[in-house]
Structures are given as C-alpha cells and as structure tokens.
UniProtKB/TrEMBL annotation:
The gene is leuB. It is an enzyme of class 1 (oxidoreductase). It comes from Sulfitobacter sabulilitoris. Its main location: cytoplasm. Belongs to the isocitrate and isopropylmalate dehydrogenases family. LeuB type 1 subfamily. The lineage of its organism: Bacteria, Pseudomonadati, Pseudomonadota, Alphaproteobacteria, Rhodobacterales. The record marks Y142, K192 as: Important for catalysis. This is 3-isopropylmalate dehydrogenase. Its EC number is 1.1.1.85.
Length: 368
C-alpha cells in the first residue's frame, strides 16, 4: 500500500521557519515510528505570486485536491499590501478553503498548565481550559455576493454580503455536535440573531439539527458580542462553540490569548469525506506570517507542530501518535522551554525556533 500523501505549503514570513520544524518531526515519525508520508512541497501566498504572478497556481490547487492532507504555514506580508485585491496572498488561502470545500474549521484553545501564568487573564480563569471553536469557513461575509467597491453618486461604496443557506448551517452544526459528543457534550452557538436575518436562520437551523438528531447534546445560543465577553469572563463555561466565518475569525484570535500566545494555536479545516472515508483537510496554525519577527528565528513553531498533530488525528487515524506529539509539547513547556512570545516580564533568554524544535524532538525520543 502506498504511503499517505501530504502537500506542504510553507508560504510567507514565518511560515517556512515554523514548517522547517514540522518537517523534522515528520522525518522523526518515519525514522522512529515507521510512519511514512509521501511529501510534496509547493508555493502559496506572496511567494507564489512572486514566482507565478498568482497566489495559488492551478497546478497547486489540483495537487491539493488529490492529496490526503495539506499542511500550510502562513501567507501575507507588507511586501504584498499594495497588490491588487485579486492577487493578494490571502486570496490563495481563501481559494484553497473554498475549492476544497473545507466548511468546518476546528480551532482548539487549550491552556497548558505551564503557561497558565502567562495568559493576559488571571491564572484560575484559564488553568485547565480546553475549548473548541468550530468556525464555518467557506461562506458568510467572506464569500457572499454582491461584493466589491462601487460608485454610488459622488462617492464609492464598499460592499460585502453576509449570506448563509440552510444546508451550509446544517453541515457545520452537525460537525460541531459530532465533536461535542467526543468531548464534554456541550455546544454553544454564536450569532447576532438580534440584528441579522442570517443570524435568525443560523439559530433556527442549529436548533433544528439539535432537536432532530442530537438531543443528547446540551445546546445553548449566545449573541456573538456577549460570547466575546463571556470568553474573557469565564471561558471554562464552554466546550464547543460553533459560529460563522467572521465571528469565528475574531473569537479564535481572542481565544489565543487565553492560551498564552497566538504562536500556540493550531487548526484543522475539514470538508466532506473523500473516497478513503477521511475528510478533505488542510491544517494550519491560526497565526499569520508575523512580519514583525520574520527571518529572525524567533517564531514559536508549536502552533504549526500541533497542526500536524491534528493531521495525525483527523486525516491519518493516528490518534495515539497525535497524543504522543501533544504530550511532548506539554512536556517541553513544563520543562521551561520558551520562545520569545512565551517570555513573561521576568525575562531570560528565549529559545530560537529551531531550539524549540530540538526540544520537542528530544521529548519525542524520550517518549519511546
Ligand atoms: P500575525 O498572526 O501574523 O501576527 C500577530 C502578532 O502575533 C505579531 O506580533 C506576531 O509576531 C505574533 N505571532 C504570530 N505568530 C507567532 C508565532 N508563531 N510565534 C511568535 N509570535 C507570533 O497577524 P497580523 O500581523 O495581523 O498579520 C500579518 C500577515 O499575516 C497579514 O498579511 C495577514 O493577512 C496574514 N495572516 C495570515 C494568516 C494565515 O496564513 N492563515 C492568518 C492571519 C494573518
Ligand atoms: C485566519 C486568517 C485568514 C482569515 C486570512 C489570512 C485570510 O486571519 O486564518 O484566521 O481571515 O480567515
Ligand atoms: Mn484570523
């Protein structure tokens, strides 16, 4: 049987830096666990624009459709800010999500004990936190039509459209309920049904899916603004949060600070099952290309490493090996390993990206 296939798209800024550490970990699984992947690598984002004049070449898109999973670093950067909107690096990532139909974006926020002191919130509020944000990823205001900048009388008007169909809400709700059943069996759905028709429909459909097929899961509804407040007031009240594309983008960055750093948060973007029964999937850190620290070897590779752990779990049926990698990360943090983003006011010398990779590899060796 052939090895499972993995397409690596390091992208821009710190993307290639954090991905270099993941490549070493993939190598470790081959050498030490006999788990081999057929890895191909390609371009996305600004670097693809520099090379091909487009942030995602059609050949790369086609490859992404064929592989068992895609692993992406980050896209974007100030060098590309002035580009025409249609070829901006971010458009490459959005095309991947849309054409692979990756409607369910899992963004877990877990506070490792060793970092509980480091959150901007008090320790007892975040210690032991383990929540999962399920962000709808292929619709909503990111993709709705009409959109654009138009002339209206003497001035211009910028338009984006929030749009959700019943089936789009239905399928992401189901993925949230399924996940909740494997966790603490609670889903909180967030929208703004008080001011948006799309929010009214969202609430109705989520409730219907619940009542018909998931009555055993505890369901609550919250306005997304109140949800942001509750996430900072007492985040441990949540288990799974399901929300739309834009609210999910905001709430997951907010959740990042509950865990200590944006450099800690992984994500999985999942679509419908392929012929092999596994979902179409793309794994990427929640963070961006971090232009302020790019090229300095300072980036925290943990978000990208934990994204690979999610790939082991959701695409390759290697839950035990995913747990091994997550435990290795937990151990290095408990032992005091810190990149610059994880340094508190007490100071000290931070580790480089590669040194954090070394520490995780050593912890993996120690796990055998
Ligand atoms: P960002 O996530 O790149 O950076 C925000 C802050 O977090 C910065 O101070 C950065 O140094 C820090 N940070 C992020 N990741 C880190 C890591 N692994 N280790 C240590 N520190 C880290 O967000 P931004 O500055 O708003 O965006 C920069 C560019 O990235 C923009 O072009 C944006 O569109 C793009 N972006 C891409 C993605 C993606 O590829 N998925 C996600 C978000 C932003
Ligand atoms: C994210 C990013 C992206 C988004 C951008 C880069 C397209 O912020 O993955 O959170 O807005 O979805
Ligand atoms: Mn974001």
């Amino acid at each position: 049987m052939s090895n499972p296939s993995l397409l690596i798209l390091p992208g821009d800024g710190i993307g290639p830096e954090v991905m270099a550490e993941v490549r070493r970990i993939i190598g470790w699984y081959g050498d030490k666990r006999g788990i081999h992947f057929d890895v191909t690598e390609d371009l996305v984002g600004g670097i693809a624009y520099d090379t091909h004049g487009t942030p995602l070449h059609d050949d790369t898109m086609a490859k992404a459709q064929e592989v068992d999973a895609v692993l992406l670093g980050a896209v974007g950067g100030p060098k590309y800010d002035a580009l025409d909107f249609s070829v901006k690096p971010e458009r490459g990532l959005l095309r991947l999500r849309k054409e692979m139909d990756l409607f369910s974006n899992l963004r877990p926020a877990q506070c490792f004990d060793a970092l509980a002191d480091f959150s901007s919130l008090k320790k007892d509020i975040v210690a032991g936190l383990d929540i999962m944000i399920v962000r709808e990823l292929t619709s909503g205001v990111y993709f709705g039509e009409p959109r654009g900048i138009f002339k209206e009388g003497n001035e211009r008007v910028g338009i984006n459209t929030q749009r959700y169909t019943e089936s789009e809400i239905d399928r992401v709700a189901r993925s949230a309920f399924e996940l909740a059943r494997k966790r603490n069996n609670k889903v909180c759905s967030m929208e703004k049904a008080n001011v948006m028709e799309s929010g009214i429909l969202w609430r109705e459909v989520v409730q219907k899916v619940h009542d018909e097929d998931y009555p055993d899961v505890e369901l609550s509804h919250m306005y997304a603004d109140a949800g942001a407040m509750q996430l900072t007031r007492w985040p441990k009240q949540f288990d799974v949060i399901v929300t739309d594309n834009l609210f999910g983008d905001l709430l997951s960055d907010l959740a990042a600070m509950l865990t200590g750093s944006l450099g800690m948060l992984p994500s999985a973007s999942l679509g419908a099952p392929m012929a092999n029964g596994r979902p179409k999937a793309l794994y990427e850190p929640v963070h961006g290309s971090a232009p302020d620290i790019a090229g300095q070897g300072k980036a925290n590779p943990i978000a990208c490493i934990l994204s690979f752990a999610m790939a082991l779990r959701y695409s390759f049926d290697q839950g035990d090996e995913a747990a091994r990698l997550e435990t290795a990360v937990e151990k290095v943090l408990a032992d005091g390993a810190r990149t610059a983003d994880l340094m508190g006011a007490e100071g000290g010398t931070p580790m480089s990206t590669a040194e954090m990779g070394d520490a995780v590899l050593a912890a993996l060796d120690a796990s055998l």
